[in-house]
Task: inverse folding
């Protein structure tokens, strides 16, 4: 079944009117050209021939009828349907995978389904559409069909099937193919539009669809299996399809979608582990890690909720930061809260729900306004210290004994103690105990009253953290100092967790069950394309089940809230921990025959009509004598008119050209194709290739992280490469390659003269044995001089004092504001190995090398643009003097 | 063209050809004395000036009316009049108000430019100029007077040089020509032609709008009548030339795509030619 058909065949009836039009056109000739000629009266009547042009020439008439016919045909919507290889079945069951793996190429899958339906449409085929991912129980099936015995899908006409398909969405959980198999109704033919990966129930579905056809659209992006925050970053595992060779691109995004950091992770044999070093700010701001467009390629991070505000009041001390408690409190609270340091007076007036006081004794009078605010819901946390030990504080929930108790001193026989446990009904419940958190001094209390809660105790039962409810708020006291001189607690991970828990109290002082009992309720839901949106159902996970919760139709992935804690449930939880991509077996299914798209011809016909209409206009002009291809009295006009007509015709035809169908399946873009334009280059073909490549990669990463320069994968080039000009900076590992041919030298000279920059790295300080002359002699370089600390190269980004590996040689007279840019930098810093981390070196040494690298790239890209940095000191001096005057 | 523009262009041309005295043609005493004002004291009929009575002058010359108003005796003097006038006549009918292309002047405005240039040049030689039946007093009025000359009798006598400009399509120009000749005037004819009238550059389906009262003509294929038209056009030219020869009038033909200077120069040469045979 194929050939020509019409979308609106009734319009063809208009063709019947064409003969009538013929008559009409005969009666109305084209209007004549109008002119005056007084001397025409000289002509005798007899000389004037009878009027013949009243009737248009029949060729013109035919042309116009043709135009009208084309317009009618075009509007009737003719379509060319290609022949099908197989006769259309009476009933076709369409099975579509819409699990997480389908999100990547969902548009193609829908397109394939729609094309199939359109191809069979005219044959009267009826379709059943069966998505494999478990149905949205609320939106698609209706609550009544919630039972586990799914009714078989019904057959519908093509139009309904198309709307069903367009309503389908990929789900952020896996397909349940076994359940789908039960819903497949008996049909004459089956088509399985699959995501191309094997799952548990695939066999059942295959046997159900025996004899049917299958189309596979395997996705390319890797998926997360697990990811955990670690100290200073995130680590986890990825799974990727077996044939993936390009490294996975992990992007850390904020909740606004801004990319905070990008990392490439090499993928090997279908899996990868990764570890991202993230700063506290990135961790706090980062909402998700994404490796691709689908839900499974997205990992929501914990820090997705807004952080509470926290006021920190520190006692004034002239001590190094590392010895003050405020430093440790700030470091511990920063990942979970916005911390602001302020005085006590300021803190009273601030809106923040939580104030932490580090060893601030507060007298009764000063405490009144604070206590009043506590009644309204403020949480006050005091850390003990020398001052409170001496003076006491009115902000303590318990009566304190004067002085502090010390363990482990020369005059005491008690050993320093560790934390024995946390009260199970307090907010610190469930924190891990830490043997390394040794406490040497603490504040002792009078016997606590009944209202006082003890949230943490030491081994001997004395309280470490006490709290008391005052109205809506809380008074909390930590009985040891936040600085490391009373205990090792601030140096342990436990301290961060305690402060973190306490900090969260600020947003809801009533919710002690931070980690425990309130059920987790779905707050933001992740859809198949990894977009967070409002939930379309009320999903609840009880706290006991949280650890074993799996993303699925009943508990969709997304952000869940319990009290003031927000936790993500990721699609990764729906994957088994040992998940690997496996290609889908075909079994008894045949590959689906290709179905070409239905080609609408209307646009072509209308374009042809338009072209003929133009031709008609030209003919009409010619008939009126306005357009003459022969010579006329004023040739310019005729030529102008015909030229313009040809132009108009050509432009219309060029408009018609884009009507051509676009290729329907676009190849999925791989990461390699998106490579950045800017690349660092090095002279390849030496033994040091791998090292150098790794080094430049490290430098590129650093550039991307710290500067606006986004350099792509480093390029290995030969010294005689023609395209050397496209690289701003070429690294020459002179320790590995100490000579160049005349042709290469000419190429490099050419490159340098056009603004290129070559870094010659001899790997060790220049001098005897480096044979620099042998290498550089061929280049015929201008006079060189040592770069002084004032050289732009050392100021272009970082202000550097010098470089590794002895003197750095640059072209003479490129210093300061001479305006000249050195085209070479020659030194022996062994930078590549430092950049790549393959050399054993102190971190500071590597950092210095990276900074030099950043400066060098900046210098290559901006030249002396940064030269005024050299004068910064003088300028600042001048400003200072101006103020003093 | 607006009168100002006509005057400007005509002034430019007149300046180039210089003063154009009519004396040459009348110096031959062809017709005796006519009225030809000289702008100096003489024996004309128009008042020129009062002057004091000189001793020995006859008392009959005293103008008593003027002398009674003062103690001195005054004599009325009259302007010297020579009997020659330049009479300009421009056909302003509908067929003259035509140009085949917007870049060309209409025939009537080109005629006006040429006649005005002649008039200005003659005036520069202190000759009397008549246009539209009215003696010219101020040079600026000339285009306006010419515009009014349609149908006005040229009133040309033996003392006149009549310059008639037109396309000579209507029938009554021959009557005016012979009237003027009967009155004894010398006549110059200026035939103003639009290039399209000479070439007939039409083809295809053309609808000819009427220039005057003739009917609308619609030609299916205009190129078919080109030959007939060219024949008719040649007949017309012959007819004009024959009429001019019959009446001993000189004929100058001017096409509007040529500069007006040519026609003015040709006319001026005819006027100033002492050997001219045309006005005999």
Result:
């Amino acid at each position: 079944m194929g050939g020509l058909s019409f979308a609106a065949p009734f319009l063809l009836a208009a063709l019947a009117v064409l003969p009538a039009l013929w008559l009409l056109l005969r009666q109305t000739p084209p209007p004549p050209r109008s002119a005056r000629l007084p001397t025409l009266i000289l002509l005798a009547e007899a000389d004037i021939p009878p009027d013949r042009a009243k009737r248009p020439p029949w060729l013109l008439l035919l042309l116009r009828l043709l135009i009208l016919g084309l317009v009618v045909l075009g509007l009737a919507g003719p379509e060319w349907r290609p022949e099908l290889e197989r006769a259309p079945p009476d009933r076709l069951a369409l099975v579509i995978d819409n699990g997480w793996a389908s999100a990547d190429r969902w548009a193609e899958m829908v397109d394939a389904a729609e094309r199939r339906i359109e191809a069979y449409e005219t044959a009267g085929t009826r379709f059943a559409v069966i998505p494999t991912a478990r149905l949205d129980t609320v939106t698609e099936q209706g609550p009544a069909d919630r039972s586990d015995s799914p009714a078989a899908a019904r057959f519908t006409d093509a139009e309904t099937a198309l709307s069903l398909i367009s309503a389908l969405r990929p789900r952020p959980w896996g397909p349940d193919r076994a359940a789908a198999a039960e819903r497949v109704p008996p049909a004459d033919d089956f088509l399985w539009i699959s995501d191309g990966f094997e799952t548990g129930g695939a066999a059942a579905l295959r046997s159900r669809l025996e004899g049917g056809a299958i189309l596979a659209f395997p996705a390319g992006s890797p998926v997360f299996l697990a990811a955990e925050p670690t100290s200073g970053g995130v680590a986890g595992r990825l799974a990727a399809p077996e044939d993936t060779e390009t490294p996975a691109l992990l992007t850390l995004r904020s909740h606004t979608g801004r990319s905070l950091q990008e990392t490439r992770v090499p993928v090997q044999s279908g899996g990868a582990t990764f570890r991202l070093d993230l700063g506290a700010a990135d961790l706090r701001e980062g909402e998700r890690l994404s490796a691709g467009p689908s839900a499974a390629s997205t990992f929501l991070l914990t820090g997705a909720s807004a952080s509470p505000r926290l006021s920190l009041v520190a006692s004034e001390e002239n001590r190094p930061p590392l010895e003050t408690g405020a430093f440790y409190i700030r470091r511990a609270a920063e990942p979970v809260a916005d911390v602001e340091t302020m005085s006590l007076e300021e803190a009273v007036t601030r809106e923040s729900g939580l104030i932490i006081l580090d060893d601030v004794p507060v007298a009764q009078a000063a405490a009144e306004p604070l206590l009043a605010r506590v009644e309204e819901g403020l949480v006050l946390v005091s850390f003990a210290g020398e001052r409170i030990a001496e003076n006491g504080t009115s902000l303590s929930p318990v009566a304190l004994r004067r002085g502090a108790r010390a363990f482990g001193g020369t005059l005491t026989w008690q050993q320093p103690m560790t934390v024995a446990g946390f009260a199970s009904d307090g907010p610190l419940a469930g924190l891990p105990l830490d043997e390394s958190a040794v406490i040497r001094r603490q504040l002792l209390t009078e016997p606590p009253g009944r209202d006082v809660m003890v949230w943490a105790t030491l081994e001997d039962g004395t309280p470490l953290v006490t709290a008391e409810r005052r109205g809506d708020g809380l008074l909390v006291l930590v009985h040891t100092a936040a600085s490391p001189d009373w205990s090792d607690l601030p140096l342990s991970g436990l301290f961060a967790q305690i402060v973190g828990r306490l900090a969260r109290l600020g947003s809801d002082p009533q919710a002690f069950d931070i980690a425990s009992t309130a059920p987790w309720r779905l707050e933001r839901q992740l859809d198949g394309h990894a977009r967070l949106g409002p939930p379309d159902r009320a999903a609840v996970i009880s706290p006991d089940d949280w650890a074993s919760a799996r993303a699925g139709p009943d508990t969709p992935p997304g952000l869940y809230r319990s009290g003031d804690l927000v936790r993500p449930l990721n699609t990764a939880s729906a994957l088994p921990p040992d998940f690997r991509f496996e290609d889908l077996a075909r079994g008894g299914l045949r590959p689906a025959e290709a179905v070409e798209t239905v080609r609408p011809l209307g646009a072509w016909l209308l374009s042809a009509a338009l072209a003929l209409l133009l031709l008609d206009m030209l003919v009409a002009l010619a008939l009126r004598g306005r357009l003459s291809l022969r010579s006329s009295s004023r040739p310019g006009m005729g030529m102008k008119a015909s030229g313009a007509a040809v132009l108009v015709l050509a432009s219309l035809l060029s408009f018609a050209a884009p009507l051509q169908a676009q290729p329907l399946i676009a190849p999925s873009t791989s990461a390699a194709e998106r490579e950045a334009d800017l690349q660092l280059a090095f002279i390849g073909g030496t033994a040091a290739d791998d090292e150098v490549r790794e080094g430049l990669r490290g430098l590129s990463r650093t550039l991307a992280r710290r500067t606006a320069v986004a350099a792509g994968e480093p390029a290995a080039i030969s010294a005689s490469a023609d395209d050397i000009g496209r690289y701003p900076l070429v690294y020459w590992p002179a320790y590995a390659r100490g000579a160049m041919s005349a042709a290469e030298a000419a190429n490099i000279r050419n490159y340098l003269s056009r603004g290129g920059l070559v870094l010659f790295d001899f790997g060790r300080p220049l001098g005897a044995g480096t044979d620099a002359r042998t290498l550089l002699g061929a280049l015929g370089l201008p006079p060189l001089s040592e770069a002084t600390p004032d050289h732009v190269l050392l100021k272009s980004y970082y202000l550097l004092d010098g470089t590794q590996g002895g003197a750095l040689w640059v072209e003479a007279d490129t210093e300061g504001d001479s305006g000249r840019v050195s085209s070479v930098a020659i030194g022996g810093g062994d930078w590549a190995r430092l950049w790549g981390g393959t050399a054993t070196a102190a971190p500071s040494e590597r950092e210095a090398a990276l900074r030099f690298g950043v400066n060098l790239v900046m210098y290559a890209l901006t030249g002396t643009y940064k030269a005024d940095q050299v004068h910064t000191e003088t300028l600042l001096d001048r400003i200072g003097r101006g103020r003093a005057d | 063209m607006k009168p100002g523009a006509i005057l400007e262009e005509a002034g430019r041309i007149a300046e180039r050809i210089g003063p154009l005295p009519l004396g040459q043609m009348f110096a031959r005493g062809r017709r005796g004395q006519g009225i030809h004002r000289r702008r100096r004291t003489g024996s004309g009929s128009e008042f020129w000036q009062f002057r004091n009575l000189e001793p020995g002058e006859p008392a009959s010359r005293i103008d008593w009316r003027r002398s009674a108003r003062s103690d001195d005796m005054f004599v009325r003097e009259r302007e010297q009049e020579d009997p020659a006038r330049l009479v300009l006549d421009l056909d302003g009918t509908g067929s003259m108000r035509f140009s085949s292309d917007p870049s060309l002047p209409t025939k009537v405005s080109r005629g006006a430019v040429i006649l005005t240039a002649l008039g200005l040049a003659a005036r520069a030689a202190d000759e009397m100029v008549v246009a539209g039946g009215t003696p010219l007093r101020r040079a600026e009025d000339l285009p306006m007077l010419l515009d009014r000359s349609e149908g006005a009798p040229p009133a040309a006598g033996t003392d006149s040089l009549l310059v008639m400009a037109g396309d000579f399509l209507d029938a009554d120009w021959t009557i005016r020509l012979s009237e003027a000749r009967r009155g004894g005037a010398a006549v110059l004819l200026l035939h103003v032609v639009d290039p399209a009238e000479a070439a007939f550059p039409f083809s295809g389906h053309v609808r000819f709008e009427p220039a005057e009262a003739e009917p609308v003509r619609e030609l299916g294929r205009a190129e078919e009548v080109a030959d007939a038209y060219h024949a008719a056009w040649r007949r017309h030219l012959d007819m004009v030339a024959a009429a001019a020869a019959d009446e001993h009038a000189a004929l100058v033909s001017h096409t509007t795509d040529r500069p007006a200077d040519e026609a003015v120069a040709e006319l001026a040469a005819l006027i100033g030619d002492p050997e001219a045979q045309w006005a005999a």
User: Anything to note?
Assistant: Confidence is low (pLDDT under 50) at residues 28-35 of chain B. The longest strand of chain B covers residues 37-52. Strands of chain B lie at 37-52, 74-81, 85-90, 128-131, 134-135, 160-166, 186-193, 206-209, 217-219, 250-255. The interface with chain A takes residues 94-96, 98, 100-101, 167, 169, 194, 196-197, 199-212, 214, 217-222, 224-225, 228-229, 232-233, 235-236 of chain B (CB under 8 Å).
